[in-house]
Write a structure and sequence with these properties.
69 residues, mainly alpha, 2 helices, elongated
Length: 69
């Protein structure tokens, strides 16, 4: 199923935000001395979704938008 480019970009940004959110969550949990397993699983899950989505749509993946500063 084809989707408009603008919608595809919005989905890509959503996935990138999710990756950043869970990376922040992981860092917070690590700092608090809690288990980071759940956060690591979520990061990997959203990265896999993003990888598959960009492969399907042909969009370029910008890793700088997945970084937590």
């Amino acid at each position: 199923k084809e989707i408009p480019e603008e919608e595809a970009l919005q989905i890509q940004r959503y996935l990138e935000r999710a990756v950043r959110r869970w990376k922040r969550e992981e860092a917070t949990m690590k700092g608090a001395g809690l288990s980071t397993t759940q956060a690591k699983v979520k990061v990997a899950d959203y990265q896999a979704k993003l990888r598959d989505f960009t492969k399907e749509t042909g969009l370029k993946r910008d890793y700088t938008r997945e970084r937590v500063y």
